[in-house]
Amino acid sequence: MSDDVLLTFNAGSSTLKIGVFELATEGPRNVGRGKIDFDQSPLMLRYSIGPDRYEKTIRGNNGAQFVSVISATLDHMLAHLPGRLHAVAHRVVHGGLTFQEATPLDDAAIERIETLVPLAPLHQPQALRAIRSMEALRPDVLQTASFDTAFHASQADLVRRLAIPRAMHDDGVRRYGFHGLSYKYIASQLRKIDPEAARGKVVACHLGSGASLCAMENGISRDTSMGFSALDGIPMATRPGWLDPGALLYLMRTGMPQPEKIEDFLYHECGLLGVSGISGDTRVLLDDKSPEAAEAIDLFCLRISGEVGRLCATIGGLDAIVFTAGIGENQPQIRTRVAQRLQWLGIEIDEGANMRNSIAINAASSRVKLFMIPTDEERVIADEAVALIA
Question: Do 199 and 336 sit in the same domain of this protein?
Fold first, then answer.
């Protein structure tokens, strides 16, 4: 067994999640996790190593002083571990047409990732800041990247096509899909839990503040709700999901012509927050008795169930649904409402198992199996990094 340590960096638009893995002979073993929320002031690093939990105030910010944040994170978290830092593995949201699997990070790969910033302007720069910070602080440490879009590269060209001129499609304006690391993990776990279901037609529902669905056959992505950007698909906490392009043209003509203002509006003012006027957090909305909160939840569940139906058309049927991520794992009320809207598919939920957050939550009479499977993106990032190192 090696004492070497692998860190995973999962950089979101306003958070940094860290996974700590020891490189054991049987594979990476998770021994800790950490998180920094850049919307908080002062910045706090909250992390655990084994059973012990810590909170540390750190200096720096989400911009020019990002390297200070990474430096302090390394100092605090690695102080509890005996081994040397062997590698850092990053989640990168967009791989474009270039990256269809995990890759080691050399100068050429980093430059190619930088060219993809226009495809994910809020998320891609965050990953690049973490990569560049590690490069400056520990140039001796190996770095790898795992891409959220890579899992969906198996989709047919027809599925990925937008109804726009062919030259634009060929230049990369197409449906990519996201949350691929989560779906890859769900596919691997379902193979362990129910191999027969895993070989069939499955719709996985990654329901968190960002949310999407993915249709899989034998664990391979065939279609997904998110498209060219992470704004597409079902409504999310503060993102609208599907939106008529004519609505954007209207906004541009009536007081919102600046692209930056439209971008901020679409990413931060819409979705469940926009509909309710209260919050984008489904926990808050479920506890709120106002009609606006109820409407936001109803719209969320309606769009999820409708997308399940669309995805069934792509894969030609349905054998199982998997709920995952923060909402999918922890809010049985949402799972119930989605299942109720899908009764026409022969879906029946076991309310007792559902309220207990069991893994299998379908009734025995259900024609479609229902599962709740916690996701672990950091595990996928670590496994892909170890495969590259080996």
Answer: yes
- The CATH number covering residue 204 comes to 3.30.420.40
User: Which residues constitute the domain of residue 107?
Assistant: 5-147
271 is in an annotated binding site: no
Contact (Cβ atoms closer than 8 angstroms) between residue 144 and residue 89: yes
327 known member of a binding site: yes
Asked whether residue 133 falls in the same domain as residue 197, the answer is no
Q: What is the mean pLDDT of residues 134-144?
A: 94
Q: What is the pTM of this model?
A: 0.93
Tell me if 68 is assigned to some domain: yes
As for how many domains the chain has, the answer is 2
pLDDT at 1: 38
**335 within a domain of the structure (yes/no):** yes
Residues 127 and 217 in one domain: no
Residues 227 and 324 in one domain: yes
Rounded (10°) CA dihedral 218, 93, 17, 330: -50
Q: 11 and 127, same structural domain?
A: yes
Catalytic residues: 148
Burial grade of 150 (CB within 10 A; 0-12, 13-18, 19 or more): buried
The annotation status of 287 as a binding-site residue, yes or no, is no
pLDDT digits (tens, 9 = 90+) for 4-58: 999 999 987 778 899 999 988 888 999 999 999 888 888 899 999 989 999 999 8
Q: Is 32 annotated as a binding residue?
A: no
The residue among 26, 89, 151 whose CA lies nearest residue 389 is 89
Strand-by-strand arrangement of the 201-207 sheet: 220-224, 211-217, 201-207, 320-324, 369-372
Residues 68 and 211 occupy one common structural domain:
no
| Cα–Cα nearest to 374, from 261, 207, 210 | 207
137 and 223 both lie in a single domain: no
282 labelled binding-site residue: yes
Counting residues of the chain whose pLDDT is more than 90, the rounded percentage is 84
208 labelled as ligand-binding?
yes
